[in-house]
Amino acid sequence: MLPVGSYSNIKFHLTASQQISLLKERGMVFTDEISAQKTLLNLGYYRFAGYFYSFRKTNPRGTPGRQDEFQAGTSFAIVEQLAEFDRLLRLMVLDAAACIEVAVRCDIAHRLGVQHRIAHEQPSLLDAKFGVTIDPVTGRTEYAEWRDKLAAAVHRARREDFVKHHINKYGGRMPIWTIIEVWDFGLLSRFFAGMQFKDQTHIARRYGLQQGQHLASWLRSINFVRNVSAHHSRLWNRNIVERPTFQKTQPHEHLHHLTQDVHAQTRVYGSLCILKSMLRVASPDNNWTERLRALCQTFPVNPIVSLQDAGFPPDWEQKTIWN
Question: Across the strands, what pairs with 58?
Fold first, then answer.
């Protein structure tokens, strides 16, 4: 509980009109204040602030953060275009992630289903590290935590016909090829990371990777950008905490340009590349690349921010992966 009076330093509420006045004082240019007020009311000032942060003047070298004033040439219209670009980019990520999620679910079900119909309940079929204690106080393992999340997912889906059927007839136990239908991407990526090396690698090779550990990192990275997108958070220049890893000897010619480009790997461009790479298998006839190219053409033209801030190399459209 916050102590009494601890809110005294919290900023006061401003109306949309007052917010615009504040932004104008700091150097932002407006051409249609009525339209801008509607945008601020729909998006929220604080959310919109995430998009105009990059337009604020930088502090002297060695001083973190940015100044309140905007760089010359900053307009509300440009920031609004950037926010719209980001919204559509998130939809692109969700679309690709959905295809990959379904494909990898099926990969796991096919690989483990032949070993045991309820392979997800057989710790002996999973990697030993999945059963390592992660909480010394409770003695809980990562696998136990995963099972709890799975049970919660089944409970949320209890009104689905196939779930009701298995609850009524089998006490809720389902074969792996059925229960994967309630997995979200988080359950999927955590389970894949807990599989045995031989099973991971078998699936990874379907996507052109030589070792399962790299696909595990790809799935974690996709899960991260998918969650950012699903929660409507700013994605375009976000630092990707779950950075994908790449083999030292890269069999994917189309990913060669990423192996030494840390900036690309830690921004959304790297995630878009692995989404595209996996879509080649998961949904080979899609037009995702063409739609992404078209979206990037709408990035607002301005001297302050660019696609390079999102990790895109200057010549990204010429890279093999996009052709």
Answer: 66
Does residue 24 fall inside a structural domain? Answer: no
* Cβ 245 vs Cβ 193: under 8 Å: no
Q: Is residue 245 within 8 Å of residue 212, measured between CB atoms?
A: no
Q: How far apart are CA 187 and CA 193, in angstroms?
A: 10
On the CB side of 314, CA atoms within 13 Å amount to 0
DSSP single-letter state for residue 304: S
Residue linked to tokens 């899609």:
286
Chain centroid to Cα 149, Å, comes to 20
In the chain, how many domains are there? Answer: 1
Instruction: Select from 110, 101, 103 the least CA-distant residue to 176.
Output: 110
DSSP-based three-state secondary structure for 282 = helix
- 66-70 and 56-58: which strand pairing? antiparallel
Listed residue (101, 255, 117, 276) closest to 191, CA to CA: 101
The 10 Å Cβ neighbour count of residue 278 is 24
**pTM of the entire predicted model:** 0.92
33 Cβ contact list (under 8 Å, min separation 6): 17, 20
Give the mean model confidence (pLDDT) for residues 294-315.
Answer: 96
- Within 13 A of 181's CA, how many CA atoms are on the CB side? 12
Q: What is the pLDDT of residue 3?
A: 56
Q: Please state which of the ranges 113-127, 193-207, 251-265 shows the lowest mean pLDDT.
A: 251-265
Neighbouring C-beta atoms of residue 114, cutoff 10 Å: 9
**Comparison of pLDDT for 147 and 257, the residue scoring more:** 147
Domain around 220: 87-322
Q: 44, exposed or middle or buried, with CB in 10 Å at 0-12, 13-18, 19+?
A: exposed
Q: What is the pLDDT of residue 7?
A: 61
Whether residue 45 lies inside any domain: the answer is no
* Residue 271 placed within a domain: yes
Q: What is the CA radius of gyration of the chain?
A: 23
